[in-house]
Amino acid sequence: MADRASKKRGNAYIKQLKPGSMKYVWARLTHNTGAMIGMSTLALLILLCLFSPLIFRWDYKYMDAAYAFSGPSWRHLLGCDELGRDILSRVIYGARYTIAIGVCSTIVSAVLGVLLGAIAGYFGDVIDSCIMRFMDVFQSFPMIVLAMAFCAVFGAGVDKSIWALGLTGIPGFARLMRANILRIRNMEYIEAARSIDCPTPTIIGKHIVPNAFSPIIVEIAMSISRNGLASSSLSFLGMGAQPPTPEWGAMLSSARGYIRYYPHMVLIPGIFIVITVLCFNLIGDAVRDILDPTMKD
């Protein structure tokens, strides 16, 4: 009964808020079970990442050679890898790289993609055709293949992975923003801004982009999970984070030769990848449901 009364009070509070506002979105998120599970799990993982040197007994680089290939025990809770390094410390510390690459590459994609999509959608005609045809060519190649080509040319590493995945994600954001710009560029408030000679950059930046940004927020949440998974793929292929960096994909790559006899070395980083991607997907689904006007409570 108490839970039901609390839910009614929460719904009443949400109805008083302006749809689309930050308070409204946050209130809806906090009343969504999936989003709360995703946000709580990610928050816990991030806190463990930040304070891992203070929490864990073993440094991720320390080699306890006598326990190489050992399974979970009280000394090493998730076991050790082939060099006797503590897997728990490495997998928690490695979350820094996977999450950072996912977030930073998504920021690169979103900023450049939104900018190009806004320009193409607002000006149309030749500018629109040139930008979109370039995006067609860019998007005709698989994302991971383009990222591998970028890393092959400019070198492997965390920073190269961020730029490789960020640049390959531009077409998705550009197309989404262009579609929204085409929908709203001829609305009354845009015409009013043009009639008083409002500068074009101001019209795009203050009047068009903010009103077309709701779907972009959903795409950002989904893109973080995709890029995090892709970063692990690049590291697994030897083109992302390099040893001894404990990135999850790199851990999988170094452990794949021992999967038959020491499966815990592969299962543990793999489980963390699945959990992290699932958390971002839960948040993205919740945000999509909140911002989609066709969805009903």
User: What is the terminal separation in angstroms?
Assistant: 21 Å
What is the H/E order?
A: HHHHHHHHHHHHHH
Strand content: under 5%
CA-based shape: elongated
User: What is the CATH superfamily label?
Assistant: MetI-like
Task: Supply the key terms.
single chain; 297 residues; elongated
Give a brief description.
The chain has a single domain (about 60-285), classed as MetI-like (MetI-like fold), CATH 1.10.3720.
Question: Helix and strand layout, with pairings?
Answer:
Layout: H1 2-16, H2 22-30, H3 33-50, H4 52-55, H5 87-123, H6 125-139, H7 143-154, H8 158-168, H9 170-184, H10 188-195, H11 200-208, H12 214-236, H13 248-255, H14 264-291
Helix pairs in contact: 3-5, 3-14, 5-6, 5-8, 5-9, 5-12, 5-14, 6-9, 7-8, 8-12, 10-11, 12-13, 12-14, 13-14
What does this structure look like?
The protein is an all-alpha fold. It has a single domain (58-284), classed as MetI-like (MetI-like fold), CATH 1.10.3720.10. The chain contains 14 helices and no strands. The longest helix is centred in the middle third of the chain and has 37 residues, at 87-123. The two termini are 21 Å apart.
